[in-house]
TrEMBL record:
Top-rank taxon: Eukaryota
CDD domains: PEBP_euk (cd00866)
Source organism (scientific name): Malassezia japonica
UniProt keywords, alphabetically: Ribonucleoprotein, Ribosomal protein
SUPFAM superfamilies membership: PEBP-like
Pfam families: PBP
Protein name: Mitochondrial 54S ribosomal protein YmL35
One cellular-component annotation, GO: ribosome
Length: 316
């Protein structure tokens, strides 16, 4: 597609601007010539990609297309710019910082650096941030109500490789109470395998291979806030998950067992409140179809009270 970019300054109005454009174009032409020579000598693909990026990255029309969002990630230069914006623009740093501060790393998975930009969207809109929003892409670690997360989210996973690879998506709650162990456990809310992703395919397909269908977050009364964590694993070998229990999930052991490599991470938080208790109850009644539990601390025993509840003096 022919570029519609036009110089910001009319030619001849500012000689130094004209010189700058001429320099950029001359450098791009030199890199293109080197690229053609490398292609003819059958050098490795990584060097070809690097030279293709170098030959285009400074061209004004390339920068204009990237800024406007009208670009094709199959082209190495746009793939490089998109990854650079994610890694150096603050989004990745914010994700890792919040995941560390809120102990998602290492409570859910060991510390790692994501290589796929995993975005989670609930509803439509300009996004949901620290100060609210109607819908759209959510910031890591924000609080969402059970009403906002009743339907499964849209997931956009921007991978920076051209070839198609299979991935597994997992949504877990590491703060789910366990009646058996009387502590917290990791509960699987959603598990999808064989998701095809590449630089040109970043959305989950319409027909998903759900191993465990989506169950909406339902923070229980009397528990602290829950960290709902979305994980993206690359399938390094053919995967046959079989039956997977939702409760008592050991994410690290599961990944090792099925040769899954963690590539992406996102998370949000939720807690039970008086304002959202009806929505939580509805999830228990309509979806889980089990009695809703309520948790709390055991009252402290007063050692001075007798069997009838009469409190006596500690001195006699």
């Amino acid at each position: 597609m022919e570029s519609t970019w036009k110089p910001a300054v009319q030619k001849g109005a500012l000689p130094v601007y004209d010189e700058a454009l001429a320099y950029v174009e001359a450098d791009a032409a030199a890199q293109k010539a080197r690229l053609q020579a490398v292609k003819q000598s059958n050098e490795n693909a990584e060097l070809v990609d690097a030279l293709e990026i170098a030959s285009e990255i400074n061209l004004p029309h390339i920068r204009s297309e990237f800024t406007s969002g009208t670009y094709d990630l199959r082209r190495p230069v746009f793939r490089h710019l998109r990854e650079q914006a994610w890694r150096l623009g603050g989004s990745l740093d914010q994700l890792v910082e919040r995941a560390t501060l809120m102990n998602v790393l290492p409570d859910v998975v060991p510390e790692f650096t994501p290589t796929v930009d995993l975005q989670v969207l609930f509803g439509s809109g300009a996004g949901i941030g620290d100060h609210g929003g109607s819908g759209g892409d959510i910031l890591p670690g924000i609080f969402l109500s059970p009403a906002q997360t009743r339907a499964a989210p849209q997931i956009i996973a921007t991978a920076f490789h051209n070839d198609e690879r299979k991935y597994t998506v997992m949504l877990v709650d590491p703060d789910s109470p366990s009646d058996v162990s009387e502590t917290f456990q990791t509960y699987v809310h959603w598990l999808v395998q064989d998701v095809p992703l590449s630089a040109s395919q970043s959305s989950l397909p319409a027909s998903l291979n759900d191993v465990l269908p989506y169950i909406p977050p339902h923070p229980q009364q009397g528990t602290p806030y829950h960290r709902y964590t979305m994980l993206l694993f690359e399938q390094t070998a053919p995967v046959s998950l079989g039956e997977v229990p939702r409760e008592q999930m050991d994410v690290a052991a599961f990944a090792v067992q099925h040769q899954l490599q963690l590539r992406g991470l996102h998370f949000w938080r939720a807690r039970w409140t008086e304002a959202n208790k009806k929505e939580v109850s509805a999830i228990y009644n309509d979806i889980l179809q089990i009695p809703e539990p309520r948790y709390g601390y055991v009252p402290r025993q007063d050692k001075l009270k007798d069997a009838l509840g009469v409190r006596h003096s500690k001195y006699y």
